[in-house]
Design brief:
Blueprint: H1 8-24, H2 34-40, H3 42-52, H4 57-66, H5 71-82, E1 100-105, H6 131-134, H7 156-161, H8 189-198, H9 201-212, E2 220-236, E3 241-259, E4 268-277, H10 281-293, H11 311-317, H12 320-328, H13 335-355, H14 357-362
Antiparallel strand pairs: 1-2, 2-3, 3-4
Helix pairs in contact: 2-4, 3-4, 3-5, 4-5, 8-10, 9-10
Length: 363
């Protein structure tokens, strides 16, 4: 139970003013602009867009600035703003096979059809502080050619031809929208993937890492990781066909996993899948591993009791906004609740003294 605090409104106003002062920092230092955050803190912007379920780099950058760099608070701001937006309709599914790739790698095929494109990656950096950045040094221009706009086929399609990988059921049914309807268990794979996309990157990463350490039967290979631009199209009833309304950057990961077969499925490779807004490859790979771990039931596998196989545990605890709200509410006033607990403990101690007087004296 919460109770009013005398002078609380004035204290809250002062707290807001102090927060704004702390957000600005030293006025002798130039203020960070939204454009600078958008262009130079791109990975942070991408995470806020992905977990906030809203593709808008400018708004994500603004949220990061307002939140003083606290990405979870920025995600909260974006989700809250998202609820105010009108809905004009739904887009048709994006065709990632038509992606213009700026990064595309495979850990399973060295000579992948369409070639491998390293793109902008930390994979080959030395993880040493670059003090040139502190001196605002110039950036060396990349010598690799820009994407030429040619569509790159999925590597998984080549395994499909040999019937070596589990086929995915095709359906025209529109999946439920997790942003509009509450999550119910058991959840369809479409809902699970939505939940994982919105889930906290650190939590999903931890779950994925647990599968690699043996807390699920999940030895995965990255069949393909691709990052690039895809067109967003929308059906317009008045004209009778779909038109392109924009373009977004996404990261897609497909994994192949060993599968010895079960009572319902023959030995073959199985899939894990991840798709995230922006350049978010760590999240996409983690998502693919957890997706595969959660598919144990449909594949007829045994549940090994691993955390990543527990649908309720993963999906209900991955949302950082829900977790933050429940966690941080305990710092709000609970004076009456605590007083009742305090009186209960005092009563129990009195009863204990009356029942065991010698033990209390010894203490």
């Amino acid at each position: 139970m919460y109770v009013a605090v005398k002078g609380g409104e004035r204290a809250i106003d002062n707290a807001h003013a102090w927060l704004a002062e702390e957000r600005r920092g030293d006025c002798a230092v130039a203020e960070l602009s939204v454009a600078q955050i958008r262009e130079q803190l791109t990975l942070a912007v991408n995470r806020v867009m992905a977990e906030g379920s809203l593709y808008d780099p400018d708004l994500a950058a603004l949220a990061i600035k307002q939140a003083r760099g606290d990405l979870i608070e920025a995600i909260f701001l974006i989700r809250a703003y998202r609820t105010t937006l009108p809905r004009f309709g739904g887009s048709i599914p994006i065709e990632t096979g038509e992606m213009t790739c700026e990064r595309r790698v495979s850990a399973t095929f060295k000579d992948a059809p369409g070639g491998q494109v390293l793109g902008p990656t930390f994979d080959y950096t030395h993880r040493l502080l670059d003090f040139k950045l502190a001196a605002d040094g110039a950036v060396d221009a990349a010598s690799e050619a820009d994407p030429d706009g040619t569509a790159t086929p999925h590597i998984m399609s080549f395994l499909d031809r040999e019937d070596l990988i589990q086929s995915e059921p095709q359906t025209d049914e529109t999946p439920a929208d997790l942003t509009r309807t509450p999550l119910e268990l058991p959840a369809s794979r479409a809902l699970r993937l939505q939940s994982l996309t919105r889930g906290d990157e650190g939590f999903i990463l931890g779950m994925a890492y647990s599968t690699q350490r043996g807390y699920a039967r999940n030895h995965a290979f990255v069949a393909e990781l691709r990052i690039g631009a895809v067109a967003v199209e929308m059906d317009i009833p008045e004209i009778g066909f779909a038109i392109e309304i924009g373009e977004i950057c996404v990261t897609e990961c497909e994994t192949v996993n060993q599968f010895q077969g079960s009572k319902t499925e023959p030995p073959q490779f199985t899939r894990g899948y991840g798709l995230v807004f922006g350049m978010s490859e760590r999240k996409a790979i983690s998502m693919a591993l957890v997706d595969r771990a959660l598919r144990w039931k449909e594949l007829g596998e045994d549940n090994l009791g691993a955390p990543a196989q527990d649908e309720e545990f993963v999906l209900y605890h991955s949302d950082n906004i829900q977790a933050t709200g429940f966690l941080e509410h305990i710092k709000l006033p609970h004076y009456v609740d605590f007083q009742s607990e305090l009186e209960l403990v005092r009563k129990l101690r009195r009863e204990a003294v009356e029942t065991y007087p010698m033990q209390e004296a010894a203490e």
